[in-house]
Amino acid sequence: MKDRISGRGGRRLTATLAVLLSLALPVTAATLHSTYVDPAAMALQRVLPPPPEAGSESAKADMQAVEAAVRARTPDDERRITANLPCTLDRFTGVLGPAFTAETMPDTAALIENVFQDGELAVLAAKAAIARPRPYTVKPDLATFGHRSDSTSYPSGHATFGYLAATVLSRLVPEKRQALFAFAETYGENRVIAGTHFPSDLEAGKIAAAVIAEALFHDPRFERDLARAASEVAAQGGASGR
To answer: To 10 degrees, the CA torsion angle through 221, 224, 230, 233?
Structure first.
């Protein structure tokens, strides 16, 4: 679609469609495509530490942490989880300001969408290889909030996206680096509060994001699109968030 649409208006339409699709479609390998890195070549399952072994004290502590987070979940938590579910640029407006949307910054939004899809494909491949059951698979009566994914648990795709997007956006708005990574941590923690991930899944997502980012920053196509996004951010006056 991107190759058939030209001009700023076309890029805005592409970015807007990407947001709508992320909301409307289940995230599976069949609905994603890679842009900058080869997800098969990433082989995250060879880089990530193994998850806690089933029945181990670490695994029990992981489950206890999920159960405690679920019990403590509030309506405000649930509203935040719902608001932060889509993996798009718009999630970061609270940190960067209201200009950081697909409508206002189509090039930046398209960059983050491509980064998400590359990262998600690599994560889905690792999930399939590692095959760690979700908390609600281990404990079916867990009071989860929101959709129960059919994918496995390790690493967390949302944690990977949060840290990966924070890494990329920090290059565009370096003065917001600390706030971006603080938001990424919260973004991942939402998944434990929802009962859909273990804390160790989030740690694996943080590692996965660093590995994927290293590959991205060596790709000339990514660097080209990053430069385009930097020009767009500069034209909008940079970040205006808290």
So the answer is: -70
